[in-house]
Write the structure tokens for this entry.
Amino acid sequence: MNKSEPVTFFIIEGLKDKYLILFAIFLAIYVLILGGNCMIIYLVRTDPKLNSPMYFFLHNLSFCDIVYTSSTIPNMLSGFLVEVKTISKAGCFAQMYVFLSLAVTGRGLLTVMAFDRYLAICNPLRYSSIMTKKVCYLLIVSAWVFGLFIPFTSLIIALPLPFCGPNVIKHIFCDHTSLVRLACTDTSRNNVISLTFALFAIISTFLLILTSYILIGKNIHKMGPAEQFKAAATCVSHLIVVCISYVSAACVYISYRVATFDPDVRLIIAVLYSVLTPLLNPFIYSLRNKELQDAMKRAFCRCSTASKMVRKTVPSVVS
């Protein structure tokens, strides 16, 4: 591209090698993400026994994961089917912002869920009076606003950057670091600001979650064995998801800050980061949560009963 001409589109080079097996794997992962998270949303919205703040927050986390992966995976899949994968400048910035925003929102929702577990275990008698419907909605809105705000500054200061070539993004989607690196000017200010906001989002939510679990641990320590097991069981699924989420984020951060990291390895880490938590969330919560398992059985029974009723009401055709 002529360097005197402004860039109007970008080429996603992370998918330059097209392998049918990779397309099939990512398609299967995306279907599992959609199926698993849609299942949780359906169960929470239709089963009266799941009408509690914990499942309301889980419902929002599943919705966030669906939108989060849908901002990158369909575009990534299309890259396997075309010779050169391009994306408009506006589309690239939009994808970058949505991806970052929902990544932060997911951590905000995990923080809200940790606070919910803290109240349920440490203040069980006041739980219902504190965690009212109004408070639940306020916490959810706060998590989403937090996610929308954190990457907004990075977007605003990146939009005026001049892009005059090259226009090849060495990534599977438009991530902030790979995009800003292509600007034809000094981007040190952009890097510092974006890193500051990213670290603030990760560290602040992690510390709040850690504080919640320290207080939960102290309270559980005072309980009897049976109560300890019951209280710990309600936290295990969330704790596993938190560990996976923050460990994968730390791996991505380290891969970008270590210059000796192989670009292909960095790309694989980025892919795992973008799909791992949304993929595992439904399975972790379903396998570790008896109430969700019972809700799935009830939903299956309802579907079976409805299917039998339909077959009975449809008149047989006599040839």
Q: What stands out?
A: The chain has twelve helices and three strands.
